[in-house]
Specification:
Blueprint lengths: L5 E6 L17 E4 L9 H7 L2 E7 L6 H8 L5 E9 L5 H7 L3 E5 L5 H15 L8 E4 L15 H5 L5 E5 L11 H14 L11 E3 L1 H7 L8 H11 L4 E5 L11 H40 L1
Pfam families: Glycos_transf_2 (PF00535)
InterPro entries: Glyco_trans_2-like, Glycosyltransferase_2, Nucleotide-diphossugar_trans
Cofactor: Mg(2+); Mn(2+)
């Protein structure tokens, strides 16, 4: 986060780095100010602002109902939307029976496409005369812990951040060695100056403006890394917030290793695309400056 955007109060539940505004005296994070403008109308407009939970899901019939019911209990949520991304099981019917609005891709298009579909449907349901809903993205396998993403809403709703990312506790049975996480963390730091703790966390709340600024989203498993880089480069503010969540971690068997290999590939594709874009923008800026001086 940009140190120029720090304001005086602190919050022990919002995690940042020392370089990003952490108070060394208290060990707590000084709260920044979001780039997204606050809703017109002051506190009354903020009170009217609601949250849409968007759940991209594929083959989650065993957990999706519990996830939906739990998400509906999050304060300020008035819409839970499941995007069934080409499931081959009963995900869509289980989600609908639990109270979600369901839209379905006829075939698997990937998480980024599901997120974009979900955001588009939410936009169509936003009421005129009210602030646009915040978007809270939740994984379909969180089950009863989905309600614990509620702390992500507060910093975005109060104008502290444009993007709030969940910090998960250690997950039992996780088989990864941190290679992909480390690669994503280093890339985000190199391209933005911010060092996230959990760069691949998919549970995140953001404003409509921030979401639109991050589109088109990076494909595949690179969506979170790409989104973070794109938003920070444009001056949006991100924070990490601890959330007590439990999901299904990837194992250390062959399937789990293949999953992490795909993650690494997609993260590197997203990172390299943004490196090239940054280099192109830098060259264009130099040429533009030279032309104006001439």
């Amino acid at each position: 986060m940009n140190a120029d955007h720090v304001r005086g109060r602190t919050d022990p539940d919002i995690v940042t780095n020392a370089a990003d505004g952490q108070s060394e005296a208290t060990g707590r994070a000084e709260l920044p100010v979001a780039k997204t403008a606050r809703p017109d109308g002051g506190s009354r407009a903020r009170d009217l602002q609601r949250v849409a939970v968007v759940i991209p899901a594929k083959d989650e019939q065993e957990r999706i109902a519990a996830t939906v019911r739990s998400a509906r209990a999050i304060p300020h949520v008035d819409l839970v939307l499941v995007v069934d991304d080409g499931s081959e099981d009963d995900t869509q019917h289980a989600a609908r029976a639990a109270g979600a609005v369901v839209v379905r891709h006829s075939h698997n298009r990937g998480k980024a496409a599901a997120m974009e579909t979900g955001a588009a449907v939410v936009a169509m349901r936003d009421a005129s005369g009210r602030p646009e809903r915040l978007l809270l993205f939740v994984d379909g396998d969180l089950g009863e812990t989905a309600v614990n993403t509620a702390p992500l809403v507060t910093p975005v709703r109060e104008g502290v951040a444009d993007l709030a990312i969940a910090l998960l506790p250690p997950q039992p049975g996780a088989g990864g060695r941190g290679i992909v996480v480390g690669a994503a963390r280093r890339a985000i730091h190199a391209l933005t100056g911010w060092t996230p703790t959990q760069p691949l966390s998919g549970m995140r709340c953001l404003t409509r403006e921030a979401f639109e600024a991050a589109t088109p989203l990076a494909r595949g498993w690179g969506v979170e890394t790409g989104m973070t880089i794109d938003l920070l480069r444009q001056g949006y503010v991100a924070v990490e917030v601890p959330c007590d969540l439990k999901h299904r971690p990837s194992s250390n068997d062959f399937k789990g290793q293949m999953h992490r290999a795909a993650q690494y590939r997609d993260v590197m594709v997203a990172v390299n695309a943004r490196r090239m874009r940054g280099a192109f923008d830098a060259v264009r800026g130099v040429r533009s400056g030279a032309g104006s001086r001439a």
